[in-house]
Every structure is written in C-alpha cells, then in structure tokens.
Amino acid sequence: MEIRKASQRSNQGITSADPVLWYDHPAAVFTEGLSVGNGRLGALAYGGIPDERIELNEDSLWSGFPRNTDNPEASVHLEEVRKLIFSKEYVAAQKLVESTMLGPWSESYLPLGTLDVGYNNLQEVRDYHRQLDLCEAVVKKTFRVNGYFHQTELFASKVDQVLVYRLESADPSGLDLTIALDSQLKHHAMPEPEGLGMVGRCPINVAPNYLESIGIGVGEPVRYDPEGRSRGLSFAVTLMVRFEREGQITHANGRLRIKTAGPVTLLLTANTNYKDWKTMPSQSGIDPYALCKKQLASLEPKTYSKIRSDHLLDYRELFDRVSLDLGGQDEDSHPTDERIRAVADGANDPGLCALYFQYGRYLLISSSRPGTQAANLQGIWNNELRPAWSSNWTTNINTQMNYWSAETCNLPECHEPLFRLTSELSEKGQETARVNLNCSGWVANHNVDLWRLTTPVGYSARWAYWPFGGVWLSMHLWEHYLFSQDVPFLAEQAYPVMRGAAEFCMDWLIEDDTGYLVTAPSTSPENAFLTQSGEVCSVGKASTLDLTLMRELFEAVLEAGRMVPADKKFLDRIGRAVVRLPPFRVGSLGQLQEWDEDYLEEDPGHRHFSYLYALYPGHQISLDRRTELLDACRKVLDRRISGGGASVGWSCAWSIGLYAHLGMGEAAWGRLQTLLGQSTYPNLLDLHPPIAGVDRNVFQIDGNFGGTAAIAEMLLQSGDQVLRLLPALPDAWPQGSVAGLKARGAYSVDMTWTDGKLDWAEISAMYGGNVEVVHAGRACRFLLSPLVKIRIDSQLRIVNTKEPLMPRS
Asked: Is 115's pLDDT higher than 60?
C-alpha cells in the first residue's frame, strides 16, 4: 500500500510552540516508534497502515523468582584477596575475586506482548502524519483514504491504570478492523464477550550465563518453570472494545473482527502476580486476570472523553511545571528525524535541544510514578526477550543517571520509585553484607533486578565487583532532602538508609601502610589499569570513586545527624573516619587520578567518568570548593574525549554536565550536539552503540535522562546556598527563557535572557533563606521570606520587592 506524506506540518493544525515529535512516515523498527506510559504500563506504537503494531510492557514482568544468591565463600577468601592487593599482586587478586567472590547474573525485564490492529478496507493512503504531543502525552496518527479523514490516539492513563487506543474515521462506510494479542512468552489467548484476553507465565531464567544476557550467542533455550506457576511470575492482559454507535464483534482463530460506523475505543490493562521482592509469586494471593477484569469493570461509567480528560489533568499537573524556550521554532516545521540528521550534519537547532529536554521529562513521568517500579535501563519500554544487560537496574551510573533530572526539573514525585527500590535493597543487602563481606549495614553491587539482587554478578570483576551501588543510591535520598528541605522525609526515610550504607562503609574500610583508611578490593567501574609489569587489571585498592562516594555519604550523614535523632557515638566514629580518607591526587599528566597510584589506563578513552563524581553529580569539587582540582578534572575530560570516550549516549550526556560544572558552555553545547547527532534514534530515544559484548546498536534510556539533566545544569546550578544563573550558556542559545526549575534549598527559579545576557530572574524559596546568587562574575546575597518571589535584573538588583539586599562579605 502506498503512503503519501503530509507536505508540511502546518497542514495538521499544530502550532509551532507545541513540544511535539512528528513524522511523515510510519516507524519501521522499535527505535522509530512513539512511546506512552503511566509508570506501570508502557506501549510503543509504530504508526503502521494498514497494520498497526503496538508493543506492550508491564513494569513487574521479569524472569526469575525470589532466591538467595549470597556467597559465603566470598568472606572466606576476602583476607587472602586483601593480602594479594597490599602485596601489589593485583592480577592474582582479581583472579581470586572472580573465582570465589562473584555470583549469578541478574534476571531480565521482559516484553509483555503486542496489540496488533489491522484495517481491512483501506486503499491508497494520503497525507500521513504521526506525532507524540508532549503536552498531552498522546500519540496521534492521521491520514486520508479516498478523501476521508482517519485518526488514532494512544495514551496511558495513570488515573485509570489503562492503555487507551481510539480509532475514528469520517468514511461513511465506517471501520472494519482485525485485532489480536500476542506475546513472545508462553501464553494463551482467549475470546471475551466484549474483547480479548491473554494469560501466560514468565520463564524462571532467560540468561543462563553472562554472554547470553548481553546478546552473544544462542545458548540454551529460554527455561520455564517445570513446576508450572509455582516459582515464575504469571501475567494477564484484557482488552475491552467500546463502540459509540452500534458495532459488531466476531471471534475467529484467536482474533477479533470489529465493524462499526462510529469511533471505537480499545481499553487494555495488564497485571502480574508480583507482590514484592521476597514473596514467591504463587503465594502472593494475586490473580492477575481477575485484577484486569476488575480494572476494566471500574471504567464502565466513564466515557472516553472523561478518561482522556482525567489523564490530561493528572499528566499536565507534572509536565506543565517547567517550560523551556531556546528559540529556533522555525525548525519545528521539519519532521523530528530530519532535524536529528541536520544536527548530525552540523546544524544548530536550539528548538531540538528544548524538545529533547522536555522529552526527557516526559519519559520520566511516563516510566516512574509513585507506586511503580523504578525506571530501568529502558525505562519501561522493551521488546526483546533477552534485552542487552537484561534491561536491569545498573547502579554504577545508569540507574542513578535516570533520576538526575527528577529534582532540578521539578518532578520529585517521580523520584519515589527509586527511593523505594533503595529502601528494599537496604533490607535485602544486610544479609549480603554479613554473609559475603563480614560487614554490618547493607550493600548493593552494580546490577539489580526485580528480586532486589544485591550480590555481585559473574564473569569479570571489571564490572561485576563494585559494592558501592548502595552508597551511590543513598545519595539520591539526601539530594531529595537538599531540594525539598523535608525534615520528616529525612528522618523517616532517608537517614535510616544512609546510616546503613555508612555502617557498611565503616566496616569495609581498612587501614593501609600509610595510615589512611582505604577500600580493598576496589575497582573503578568497568575500567582497567596497567600494572608495573604491563598486565591489564581492574582490582586494586582505594579507587577515587569509592573514596569520593564514602566522603560524600559520611558528610551527609554527619549533617543529617544534626537534624534528626541519631546515635552520637556512631556520628563521632564517622567524623573520625572521614578525615582519614586519602585526599584527591593529581597524576603526572595533570589529571585527577582514578586509582590510589598513578597507573596508566588500559583505555584512555574509556566511557566511564565515574571518578569525576566529585565534580558532577557530586559537590566536592566545584567553582566554590576545591577549585585547585578543576583543571585536573578538565584534563580527564579532554583526555577521555580525545581518546574516543563519551561515545555512548549516557557517557556523552555525563560529559555535558561535567563541562557545564566547569563553566565551559561551548564545550557542553558541543557535546550536546554530539549526543543529538550521533547518539539519538529517530524517535529521540538514546542510542547505545556496539561495545565489547554487544555487537549491535541498542536502546538505553539513561542518555535521555542524563541529557535533560545536563541541559538544566547549563542553565542553573545550586549547592551550599549558592545559585548560579546561566553558568554554562552557549553562544548557540542567544535568547531564551526557562521557568519552574528547582534548586537545592527549596528554591524555584525562572529566567529570561537576550543576546546571551540575563534579562531578569525570579527566585522564590519554599521556606525562605539566605542565598547567594551568582551570574556573569557578580554575586549578591539575598534574604528571602517564605514563598515570596523576588525579581532581579542582570546586575543582580532587586526590581520588584522590598526584600533586604545584603552585600557579599
């Protein structure tokens, strides 16, 4: 069937100010489709004609079941490993770690299935157009057949826990459709009086070994539980058809045939029998099929218009909090995929940067809502039975990056699933810390799954052995407090988790021969160094990232301990330890050292910037603190990038934030151009190119979230009661405005600028406070009253309130 494209976007009645992804042809592959989600249910539409394919996901649909992966043998060999490390026998230490201290790979996030909708009576299609409207969280497709207008809409309602797909036609002959549900998982589809149903179950393991889990080789077949539903998860999907005029439904060969003269609405929901990480699915007491039926039955009184309007009210309450205009609206008249190609060819498209920023906020709202699972490596959108890296939560950067934008981009509610994940890991990880490492507190390593895996995975210590995932995750709870100033949250949720992570750190530290407290064994995520004999190794002691995370956690625990009930003896112990951590060191190349010694890197262009955490997203190196180390951080960045680093989307996004914190706006913008032009799919999702272990491009969502956060950091930075306005504004964005950004200290900031210079900024504080504002080399301190907004001009003078201005001392 020929599809003729709409000649220009204006034909579709869309204003240029709308943040919209749009295309003049259907998607051919997953990474061209358009996604919707309500945090729990996800869908991605290809926009095909006459056959539409919609990929379906549910956030608790994983392989596996609750299991104990703790490894008592690890603690037996820990002292031997440490002796080898202190004797500088690093390769031998790594081999012993890999043979005795690792464990099984994580389980996999699975695709739920597909909803296939086929038109039975279409001929030549003209004026094709599909779009994702970020203001409405609705995917829309329009086209004409024989002059008659056709339209579909797809959205995911958080309010009603349902996916909604609506089809309309102006053709007097009406709609003639064939509908089917399918899944790659073991399943059984059956007819329903008003639609279709599908039940199935998940495998107990889809990755028998590491190589399979990252897509190398065929390996063993997917293994389902031979005992039926006793261990693996079961799932159900139900679909209900609604007519606005009379319609006819017939069932044949597991499919549904629909004929109607009016619009038709498909309502779909899905559930599993997952209760929590420690309950065997068969003992959860949850009947997913009955739950689906109950959810759809609850919608009987609601019209399509009411379902849609409730969805919009819920979604827009979050999305509308932040607006961003960087100019360049003229480019909105071009399809999004053409704009991406133009940027790859060197074009400057500020409007695409703003669209990318808002798309990241949209994705976070769509994949992480209170009560859902946290956004994983693919958010909630996955169509592969064996996704790369199991589409798990990778906590040596990727999971954390997913949430860097949550606070500054005014979506703190979307942070809640990560807090709950961290809290559950703190419970599961207590036993792992005790059994594997003879430590108190709790520990989590670099891979996490639905069942809250806290042990190392297998194969190589280079990535598998890194017991600081829990420490990094704990800092997100502290960040939420810094932004919100919510003391009850700090006392009841954050501090207990942070304290447990600090307890582990205290027990994990060991004194070296210089009197410093160090970590051993220690790795710097996924990187390797060259020993004095030229051997490649990853296991040593006192990696910079280990110590940076510990120092930041200890300082946070000490500060929190002054505001919430705390054990003074423990705080005193923390205070004595933090001053005994080794300092940052500068190597022979002028770079910040990654390890305790100035080793040569095996890969100077490595994708991880982990040990620059102190610069961003951490706070230990900044334009206000430890400024003598700024140049050492810059040299790391320049060296990595010149060596081919930051070649994957999330790494490129991280480099933008790092350059922003160095005040290097042009460098940050250049990396953003690279992110958009080289690491972005046509649907704006993040592209992860082939690396060792993966021989194809894959989708990974962290680059989207990291890119959004980095753009925000170019416009506003905060910490230590200092607000930096437009700290890394590039020449490519000479005029613009932003509203609704949040800053640490519970501040809100709006700004406009012209010719690269601030016109005005409006600042308010939830609880009031004394804040220093810095812009263009000027700094002034303001005492803000609670909820009173002040407007300041480019000279940092108050222009519309009588709030007292205190000159900087």
From this structure: yes
At 1 the pLDDT is 57
Write out the E strands in 10-161. 20-23, 34-37, 41-45, 51-58, 113-119, 125-133, 138-145, 148-157
Residue 583 belongs to some domain of the structure: yes
Say whether both 283 and 366 belong to one domain: no
Per-residue model confidence (pLDDT) at position 721: 94
Instruction: Flag whether pLDDT at 730 surpasses 80.
Output: yes
Q: Which residues of 301-327 are buried (b: 16+ CB within 10 A; e: fewer)?
A: ebebeebbeebbebbeebbebbbbbbb
Same domain, 99 and 174: no
Q: Averaged over 38-58, what is the pLDDT?
A: 97
Three-state SS for 736?
A: strand
Q: Is 68 contained in some domain?
A: no
Question: Is 10's pLDDT higher than 50?
Answer: no
Cβ–Cβ < 8 Å for 510, 531: no
170 touches 143 (CB < 8 A)? no
pLDDT (tens digit per residue) in 70-114:
999 999 999 999 999 999 999 999 999 999 999 999 999 999 999
Confidence bin at 696 (pLDDT 50/70/90): confident
| Cα 71 to the center of its chain, rounded Å | 30
β-sheet with 747-754: strand ranges across: 323-325, 736-743, 747-754, 757-765, 790-793
Tokens linked to 112: 């739920």
pLDDT at 805 over 90: no
Pick from 704, 720, 736: which residue ends a domain? 720
d(CA 346, CA 247): 53
The residue among 300, 319, 338 that closes a domain is 319
Tokens read off for 228 = 């039926």
Q: Is residue 334 part of a domain?
A: no
DSSP structural state of residue 493: I
* Cα 372–chain centre separation: 14
Whole-number Å distance between alpha carbons of 209 and 637:
35
DSSP 695: -
Q: Are 54 and 117 in contact (CB under 8 A)?
A: yes
Name beta bridge partners: 753: 736, 758
Q: Is residue 699 domain-shared with residue 731, that is, in the same domain?
A: no
Q: Is residue 332 part of a domain?
A: no
pLDDT tens profile 326-340:
997 777 889 999 999
pLDDT in tens, 653-689: 999 999 999 999 999 999 999 999 999 999 999 999 8
Does one domain contain both 627 and 660? yes
**Does the structure show a pLDDT above 50 at 316?**
yes
Minimum mean pLDDT range among 57-61, 212-216, 384-388: 212-216
Average pLDDT over residues 690-696: 72
Q: What is the pLDDT of residue 646?
A: 82
Q: Please give the structure tokens belonging to residue 444.
A: 């989590």
* Residue carrying structure tokens 């579709």: 12
Helix 469-484 to helix 495-508 angle (10° resolution) is 140
Whether residues 682 and 728 fall in one domain:
no
Give the CA radius of gyration of the chain.
27
CA-to-CA dists, residue 449 to 329, 348, 758, angstroms? 42, 40, 45
What distance separates the 2 farthest-apart alpha carbons in the chain?
Answer: 86
- The chain-wide mean pLDDT, for the chain, equals 93
Same domain? For 757 and 635 the reply is no
Asked if omega into 19 is within 30° of 0 (cis), the reply is no
Are 671 and 356 spatial neighbours (Cβ–Cβ below 8 Å)?
no
Total tally of structural domains belonging to the chain: 3
Rounded (10°) angle between helices 649-661 and 665-678: 170
236 and 182 assigned to the same domain: yes
100 and 228 in a common domain: no
Which domain range does residue 518 map to? 77-107+346-720
pLDDT in tens, 235-280: 999 999 999 988 999 999 899 999 999 999 999 999 999 999 999 9
How many DSSP H helices and E strands does the chain contain? Answer: 20, 36
